[in-house]
Amino acid sequence: MATWRPPERIRHDAVPGRWPSAAEAAASRLFSPVRVGPLQLPARTWVPAMVPWRATEEGFVTPAVLDWYRRFAAGEPAVIVVEATGIRDVPSGPLLRIGHDRFLPGLERLTQVVREASGGRTRLLIQLIDFLAIKRRPEPEKFFGRHLVISARHRAYLGMPGADEAAVRARLLGLPPAALQEALDARELEALRMGYRERVTDLELEHVRALPQTLPPLFAQAARRARAAGFDGVELHYAHAYTMASFLSATNTRADGYGGEPAQRVRLPLEVFAAVRAALGGDYPVGCRMLADECIAGGTDTATAAGFACAFARAGMDFISLSRGGKLDDAMQPKVGEAAYPYTGRSGYECMPSYYSDRQGFLGRNLPASAAIRAALRAAGLATPIVAGGGIHNFEQAEEVLARQQADLVSLARQALADPDWFRKVRQGQGGAVRLCKYTNYCEALDQRHREVTCELWDREDVGAPGVALAADGKRRLVAPPWEADSK
Ligand SMILES: Cc1cc2nc3c(=O)[nH]c(=O)nc-3n(C[C@H](O)[C@H](O)[C@H](O)COP(=O)(O)O)c2cc1C
Ligand code: SF4
Predict the structure, then answer these.
(1) CA count, 13 A, side-chain hemisphere, 86
(2) What is the Cα–Cα distance from 43 to 115, expressed in whole angstroms?
(3) Ligand 2 atom 8: residue of nearest CA
(4) Given the CA of residue 390, which atom of ligand 1 is nearest to it?
(5) From CA 289, how far away is CA 155, in angstroms rounded?
(6) What is the overall mean pLDDT for the chain?
């Protein structure tokens, strides 16, 4: 699928900076303790959620899921957030799921594996997600032959008031693009060009209208299962293109008290949190991931997002992890037979920027917004820790984020994928051994196609060695090789 890129196409390279000695690391901000609600963490290092597409088609934990998180845990970050995990008991493809008790044994095993592999030094959270339906872009023949509901509007446009429906469908199929623009309404055009997708504003759909009633108990039950499985906390997914972010979005015009002004848009996210808190009690860590900026035309800006963050903090969230963009509103047109993907437009670029960029580059695009949100919390007397990052790959950058009070914890996603041992290497004064992410987004391209996510810097290494598990294509190893210092 095509992906939007900044027109400047300025190439940026990751830089190692100066790595600390073990003593310097021990005295650093990054490796200093921090409290996240009831959790006392030994360091401010955070691996945010990344979907690796390792679950079964039914959403169960597999040995490959266990291997994936075992490998991250061996690097001993203070926190790992397990990938976006579906809260409903509905088929969702190979997305991890937590919508029923039958998923518990696998999830329990996952929490045990991470505890063992990190020697108890890594806390494991899980990201809970809900999303609405999105369909593949249809063949025009299928769309006009079956999907499109023929209305009086279509008949009037074609001047075929009493014609047989099949004749209307055939005429529409034969129209040139400019005429289609007039014959179809905006949603029909979108369904044809991008594939149909539900929106939180589709109040004519009963299940969408009922989301304020259905979602709080669904999130609460999922969160209860997370605690039962041994997770150290939950992260409510309020970011990117998914249901809860769509409620917060400036595009949410619901007229039922859950859309329009920011105070109404934040209502359901607060009610979901209240249900989760009530289910788990006050001593269990619950936070959310939300957008510091939607990065779409007319989208929620940082000032409004700061208001949301203050509302969440006041309600008692234990942390707020910030991302940006990643919306479907500006996604690129998918090929026929494929679904639109939220990380392909400009807002998607803001979420996961790559090495061909504008002047700013991939590093720190969300940090000014994160700093503003953190400052707004502190000005309101709220001490809730902020997790932020984006393009962070060396120690000096992470230290600077903390020194400049842009965040309280620093997240490394792709850098942790490129080298899961980053945290341990840097802490032990062996930063020189870090394998730096190149921000090529090879991993993200695999994610888009729902193929097992790996990193191009290590996935062809020692693929024939005994015991090395390979991807379905038989060519790529599924986890990073062990750190050599460990195997000596
Ligand atoms: C393969 C892949 C999968 C991702 N899956 C998720 C996800 O499940 N939930 C989420 O909130 N963010 C997800 N992200 C976004 C990352 O958590 C992170 O916000 C983004 O990569 C920017 O951080 P970085 O520059 O440190 O990589 C994913 C990123 C990648 C590369
Ligand atoms: S494939 Fe590896 S090097 Fe490329 S962006 Fe992903 S993690 Fe970084």
Answers:
(1) 23
(2) 16
(3) 437
(4) 25
(5) 46
(6) 96
